[in-house]
Amino acid sequence: MEAQRIDLPQGTLDLLILRTLSLGAQHGWAISERVQQVSSDVLRIQQGSLYPALHRLERRGWIKAKWGLSENNRRAKYYELTRIGQKQLEAETESWRKLTAAVAQILESA
Amino acid sequence: MWNDLLFRLRSLFRREVVETELNEELRFHFDHEVEKYKKSGMSFEAARRRARLSFGGHEQVKEDIREARGASFIDNTLQDLGYAIRQLRANPTFAIVITLTLALSIGANSAIFSVIHGVLLKTLPYPEPNRLVRIFLSNDAYPKFPLNPFDLRDFRSRNKSFELLAAFTRGDVQLSGSGDPVRLNGFGITSGYFHTLGLQPQFGHEFDEKAEIPGNGLQIILSDRIWRTRFDAAPDIIGRKITLNLQPYTVVGVMPPGTAHPGNEYQPLPYGEDVDAWWPFTFEGNPAQRGSHYIEGIGRLKMNVTVEQARAEMNALMTQLGREHAGDQGWRVLVIPLDSEIVGASRRLLLVLMGAVGMVLLIACANALICCWHARRPGSARFQCGWLWERPARVSFVSCLPRACSSPSWGELSAWRWRWLASRRWFRCYPQTFPARMTST
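The joint structure predicted for all components is written out below.
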């Protein structure tokens, strides 16, 4: 029995990618696996959205890419957080906290 | 910003490398997916199928990534442009017809607009031009007739509506002495003529009333152009004697460049020509004889005097003069604002023309767009690969670009041609004054 999956709200994909990369450089597949594992299978990133998002973040300069060797000795493209990306992550985490807290407050007040 | 630009440029110019990397990256992901499903107990084939399913459309993903890299817009536009140029080469007649249609209508628009700009939009080149009026006589036989000099002199001394009243009449002069003799466009002017217009000479002074006395008339005011071209801009020109009509005239003034002629009815100055010499008009003959009419009146209204008030006063004066002189009976006085005298009836004509050529341009554009839209070959393979409407629309738009780019240059050429035509033929029946001179756009 698979856990019930939730579609990612708009704009959270970037946040999840940045957060995952803050633990160290990763390639695309590892990012999607890690998000899935850590969220206990609730969140799953489609490749169709993951890679465009990675390239977009790279274009903005929040992450940078370099080629390296994977665990099974294949050439893989690793992404890592840049300094701007780090700041962006902090800012977005902060605003996400505020948002969820505010939404929760409203939901519980009723 | 900088990063963004470099990134886009790399996507654009290192396209093969970027594409290979993209394929490798997606392949890596796909293989890991297959591996994952195999580990969960699937057969190799089933795992591949599953991975492919979860991956979604491979080409679509790649297109999205290109989009995200920011290169696809430029890339697609370049492709479309290439397509458009190939199409033009494949069907040159079509291309030429579209380009010519656009060129002609752009040209006509630019020509008409330059006339409108010159005639309707620019104000007259005099201070407070709304106080300037032209004065004519009128009766049933001659609806718009010049003045008799002595009538003008009486108007000038008796009126209360005008700050200044002056008159002018065409009379060209022959300049000789240095170099070949030339004919100069000349006008005889009363004292206060330039003051009425709000102008003054850059050197010297304009004629005073003494110059109007017969025998005092051998004085001349030159245009800036003649002063520069015939007298090498000599600083000591004032007071010098020059030979006009084989007689020695003393130069008393030089007008500044751009001194505009306010237009005239009696022996009018042809369109586009400048006045080069002004000589003093002298009141010769018998003041009791009011038969001959050959000078044109111009006046500057006093502050807060309306054209209607001035017209009423002038007509009262004319009735009075009619009682004094038999030759002054039966005339009405026309007082016409200078602006409407110059632009007058042509305003509506010009607006209608502008509307007409505007419509022609619109039709030409619609034509070009429709042709380009048809040119996108809906049956071709390119248009069946799941393109949305947006791409064909862009192809059509881009197809228009080479035409549109070439059209304005042709348009400019044709505008020049239109202007030439207009100045030759059409403008002959146009108010023959300075504002009708066309500006280049």
